[in-house]
Amino acid sequence: MHKYYNMKNLLIVIISLITLLFNGYSQIVINEYQCSNVNTITDANGDNSDWFELYNTTGSAIDLNGYYLSDRITNPTKWQIPSSIMLPANGFITVFANGGGTVTAREIHAGFKLTQTNQNMLLFQVLPEIL
């Protein structure tokens, strides 16, 4: 089971890289981030969680259905973004990285935390599998 899981993750990474090569650029980029947020941005709960920003480089809104966020390349499907999230054309969305794994009408809280020593923030789009 463990070998299969690692091979599946490796395949997802390879497919994502091939897709990026054929597209030439990414439509969504991680534009900005802050680890160890002390007083910059406060979430709706009044917490100063670490955060990062997704930026849509295109002139069209993008449905984030099928996208995943992770802090580890070995686990590209760590936290799936719910299908109800639209990234506006040329717009930004702030994602709080506090381990909450929740989405409200106003905020996204990824299911992992950032650290000052390991600030990996990865965005993956998983293509449909052929069974």
Can you tell me about this structure?
The protein is of the alpha+beta class. It has a single domain, classed as Immunoglobulin-like, CATH 2.60.40. The chain has 1 helix and 10 strands. The strands form 3 sheets. It has a 5-stranded mixed sheet, with no helix packed on it. A 3-stranded antiparallel sheet has the order 5-4-10, with no helix packed on it. It has a two-stranded antiparallel ribbon with strand order 3-6. A hairpin with an 8-residue loop joins strand 4 (67-70) and strand 5. The longest helix is centred in the N-terminal third of the chain and has 22 residues, at 2-23. The radius of gyration is 15 Å and the shape is globular. It starts with a helix and ends in a 6-residue tail after the last strand. The model has no long low-confidence stretch (mean pLDDT 78).
SSE layout and pairings?
Layout: H1 2-23, E1 28-34, E2 51-56, E3 62-63, E4 67-70, E5 79-80, E6 86-87, E7 92-96, E8 102-103, E9 108-109, E10 122-125
Parallel strand pairs: 7-9
Antiparallel strand pairs: 1-2, 2-7, 3-6, 4-5, 4-10, 8-9
